[in-house]
TrEMBL record:
It comes from Chordeiles acutipennis (Lesser nighthawk). Residues 56-133 form the Methylated-DNA-[protein]-cysteine S-methyltransferase DNA binding domain. PANTHER family: METHYLATED-DNA--PROTEIN-CYSTEINE METHYLTRANSFERASE. It catalyses: a 6-O-methyl-2'-deoxyguanosine in DNA + L-cysteinyl-[protein] = S-methyl-L-cysteinyl-[protein] + a 2'-deoxyguanosine in DNA; a 4-O-methyl-thymidine in DNA + L-cysteinyl-[protein] = a thymidine in DNA + S-methyl-L-cysteinyl-[protein]. Its EC number is 2.1.1.63. This is Methylated-DNA--protein-cysteine methyltransferase. GO terms for biological process: DNA repair; methylation. InterPro entries: MethylDNA_cys_MeTrfase_AS, MethylDNA_cys_MeTrfase_DNA-bd, MethylDNA_cys_MeTrfase_DNAb, MGMT_N_sf, WH-like_DNA-bd_sf. It comes from the Eukaryota. The keyword DNA-binding applies. The lineage of its organism: Eukaryota, Metazoa, Chordata, Craniata, Vertebrata.
């Protein structure tokens, strides 16, 4: 459990509206996860998320179907995205995710239960998974 307070950086009044939404969502994710469901998801304008591709399908499926505190295997996510034989392609989609945490690629693990790789480092992935598990348990009480 962290003793650090959740704060927004100085100069917040100078932020654009999409950036304010992003900051609010991330602040809620780390400090009050139950609020993330009531906040608007920031707009995604990255080209990878605009063009029709399997990567886009995988990322949107992950965002929509794998909830806070849950994990899914690469193979399960491939199946959810419509191609049960594309577990390696799901790994590629996770590597190319332009907005980790917002599109929660840390929730994708190997079929063996191992955490798998993460662009932010495996310790970060394990921390994010632990954070979500702990917060979900708190919400269950």
């Amino acid at each position: 459990e962290s003793s650090a307070a959740c704060e927004v950086c100085e100069g917040a009044e100078e932020m654009t509206e999409p950036l304010k939404q992003c900051v609010a969502w991330l602040q809620a994710y780390f400090c009050e996860p139950a609020r993330t469901t009531s906040l608007p998801m920031p707009a995604f304008h990255h080209p990878l998320l605009q063009r029709d591709s399997f990567t886009r399908q995988v990322l949107w499926t992950l965002l929509k179907d794998v909830k806070f505190g849950e994990a899914v295997s690469y193979k399960q996510l491939a199946n959810l995205a419509g191609n049960d034989r594309a577990a390696r392609a799901v790994g590629g989609a996770m590597r190319s995710n332009p907005i980790p945490i917002l599109i929660p690629c840390h929730r994708v693990i190997s079929s063996s239960g191992q955490s798998g790789n993460y662009g932010g480092g495996n310790l970060m992935k394990e921390w994010l998974l632990s954070h979500e598990k702990l917060q979900k348990e708190k919400l269950s009480y």
